[in-house]
UniProtKB/TrEMBL annotation, chains A, B:
Its cofactor is FMN. This is pyridoxal 5'-phosphate synthase. The lineage of its organism: Eukaryota, Viridiplantae, Streptophyta, Embryophyta, Tracheophyta. InterPro entries: Pyridox_Oxase, Pyridox_Oxase_Alr4036_FMN-bd, Split_barrel_FMN-bd. GO terms for molecular function: FMN binding; pyridoxamine phosphate oxidase activity. It comes from Aegilops tauschii subsp. strangulata. Its EC number is 1.4.3.5. Keywords: Flavoprotein, FMN, Oxidoreductase.
Length: 216, 216
């Protein structure tokens, strides 16, 4: 894909910064249908329509875990117990905003997110999840044995040290997300150039990428 | 507000980094009601219900332009011709994700966004907009005289130099956004501590902030 070369160049140019692999992931907020007031028809029957009510958008910093092999899917590790999992399952469109602080480049990458936890029925996906689990450090794996994220803790609670067997496979709380890019909006704030990459669809097949220069 | 002290400390600790005032703003995507298939009732009348269809979430890097005086509203400059304006008008909930790369602190600030362009009927808001306009550099003001963002440009187009009268007031394309925080989710990745601040509402008045320590 044409944007992968730009992204690789940005990763290389910013590799000396620990935070260069951090980006912001926004998932679509929950769409919960809200019933409209009960309406009565002239024939005495009543019906209830619903409108889509939008919740709140959610935005959080996550870490780039590389591309999936042989494709452009971006991998992210996450805790299956966090709020975003439910949100993403309901509405799987997401957008990454990745700003490279040294080279002044921004990539906005939008696409479909796939949630791969231990309940997946696809052996290939379970294998990807296992691979991504072993690719992360033992320290980061041990986070998934801690308390659920966002649960109130008492002030005198100590974070317990948890030990994890380095050879043990993924725990239940470990979830792999993959984002399959459909559109990449690239802007370079030094050269003041912006490129828009769009994946073109033909029938059931996504094939090529189209690039267009747009005003910044 | 209790979280303001934490944010000020983070701003001070990261002040040597040009990008410390950059954060990611996500606006809710467009909610466009989609008509359901026409339904016919037993009395022969037809009705059409709609469901909410969600578009795509949008996430972009913007610059912190300070707090509005005497309150906690966060100011952001934007181009009235960009897509986000329409999105925000339709659904004004937004979330900021602000990661401080040196101190490893993340603030997720969610709240209501107000769009203040030249068409505002509120003299106080127009005054805020003018003030924010003059507070930004002449160079950044001149951006609003350029081409609309995201419009295709030919490869041989040269970016024209635009000159702006430093004493001239805000141009049409200049828009001030303010985000009024309702919830602040703070996490410090060095100390592994997380605090959740929530504004409490009593009747029509928002008054106090509640802080709770939660698991990271």
């Amino acid at each position: 894909s044409p944007w992968r070369a730009l992204l690789q160049r940005a990763l290389d140019a910013n590799a000396h910064l620990k935070h260069s692999t951090f980006f912001q992931l926004v998932s679509s907020h929950t769409i919960s249908p809200v019933p409209l007031p009960l309406d009565t028809l002239t024939d005495g029957r009543s019906f209830q329509a619903t409108v889509g009510a939008a919740g709140r958008p959610a935005n959080r910093t996550v870490v780039f875990r590389g591309f999936q092999e042989q494709c452009d899917k971006i991998q992210i590790n996450t805790d299956a117990r966090s709020n975003k999992i439910g949100e993403i399952r309901e509405w799987p469109l997401g957008e990454i905003c990745w700003y490279f602080t040294d080279s002044w480049e921004q990539f906005r990458i939008s696409g479909i997110i796939d949630v791969i936890d231990g309940s997946s029925l696809d052996p290939a996906k379970l294998q990807q999840r296992e691979k991504a689990w072993f690719a992360s450090s033992v320290k980061s794996r041990s986070q998934y044995l801690g308390q659920s994220p966002g649960v109130p803790v008492a002030n005198d609670d100590h974070i317990k040290d948890v030990h994890i067997d380095p050879s043990a496979g993924p725990v239940d709380a470990y979830c792999l997300l993959t984002l399959d890019p459909e559109k990449v909006d690239y802007v370079n704030l030094k050269s003041n150039q912006r490129l828009m990459f769009t994946r073109t669809q033909e029938g059931d097949e996504f094939n090529d990428w189209m690039a267009e220069k747009v005003s910044p």
